[in-house]
């Protein structure tokens, strides 16, 4: 199985940022315009980009169409992107703006049957479902929504099985507690997801800090890894990683 690296650019107020554990009050801003950062990743050898609209993730209404078009015009990157996707029209508009895949998060938790309909209409290759999880006091994985600010009461395992039965191909799962923490990916979580739905291509997100973590995610059965803070803070040499046989 090939393995894909997804350098990530999270955008808030037009700037490249990272949040700590999804908390909008704990934001770090980074130098460089988002399109310039994307071009740098492309020149390093990346083939994909993970682009997140943090403003829309909370408020709805994807705002990065112009940035997406600029990235697509300046680079050969394939882009998966989302934030604030609330309707089929949103999916269609983001695809028309140049996205290769649309990432659906909150609505994938609240209205899974609608999202399954989009998978049917647009094709499983064009939709990435983001089931971002936080472990509760009982050890169960729950799925908060609205930029991780609202409890949904929906459990990760049951919803993944529902999507897998409906033909889901791409799953992005972030362990929220590890997001932006450089604490290593939750390999136990990803092994469990692969066991539940071996036909689904799982993208590890949250905590990746170095090349060894990328290798560990692949060995855990993941089909890809999202690289955020570790890239922005130069803990990972993307060009060197892209030369490795795990592919980009």
TrEMBL record:
InterPro entries listed in its UniProt record: Aldolase_TIM, His_biosynth, HisA/PriA, HisA_bact_arch, Isoase_HisA-like, RibuloseP-bd_barrel
Molecular function via GO: 1-(5-phosphoribosyl)-5-[(5-phosphoribosylamino)methylideneamino]imidazole-4-carboxamide isomerase activity
Active site positions, chain numbering: 10 (proton acceptor), 132 (proton donor)
EC number: 5.3.1.16
Major place of residence: cytoplasm
BP GO annotations: L-histidine biosynthetic process; L-tryptophan biosynthetic process
Family, similarity comment: Belongs to the HisA/HisF family.
NCBIfam families: 1-(5-phosphoribosyl)-5-[(5-phosphoribosylamino)methylideneamino]imidazole-4-carboxamide isomerase
Protein name in UniProt: 1-(5-phosphoribosyl)-5-[(5-phosphoribosylamino)methylideneamino] imidazole-4-carboxamide isomerase
Gene that this polypeptide is encoded by: hisA
């Amino acid at each position: 199985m090939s393995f894909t690296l997804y350098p990530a650019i999270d955008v808030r107020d037009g700037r490249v940022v990272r949040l700590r554990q999804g908390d909008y009050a704990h934001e770090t801003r980074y130098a460089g315009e988002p399109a310039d950062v994307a071009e740098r990743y492309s020149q390093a050898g990346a083939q994909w980009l993970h682009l997140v609209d943090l403003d829309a993730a909370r408020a709805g209404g994807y705002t990065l169409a112009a940035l997406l078009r600029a990235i697509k015009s300046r680079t050969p990157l394939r882009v998966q992107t989302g934030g604030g996707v609330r309707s089929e029209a949103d999916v269609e508009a983001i695809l028309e703006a140049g996205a290769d895949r649309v990432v659906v998060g909150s609505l994938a938790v609240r209205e899974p049957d609608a999202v399954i309909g989009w998978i049917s209409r647009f094709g499983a290759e064009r939709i990435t479902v983001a089931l971002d999880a936080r472990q509760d006091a009982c050890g169960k994985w729950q799925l908060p929504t609205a930029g991780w600010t609202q409890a949904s009461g929906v459990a990760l395992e049951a919803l993944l099985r529902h999507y897998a039965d409906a033909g889901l191909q791409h799953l992005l799962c972030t362990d929220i507690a590890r997001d932006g923490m450089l604490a290593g990916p939750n390999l136990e979580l990803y092994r469990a997801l692969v066991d539940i739905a071996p036909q689904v291509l799982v993208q590890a997100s949250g905590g990746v800090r170095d090349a060894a973590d990328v290798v560990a995610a692949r060995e855990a059965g993941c089909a890809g890894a999202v690289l955020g803070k570790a890239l922005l803070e130069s803990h990972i040499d993307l060009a060197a990683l892209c030369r490795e046989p795990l592919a980009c």
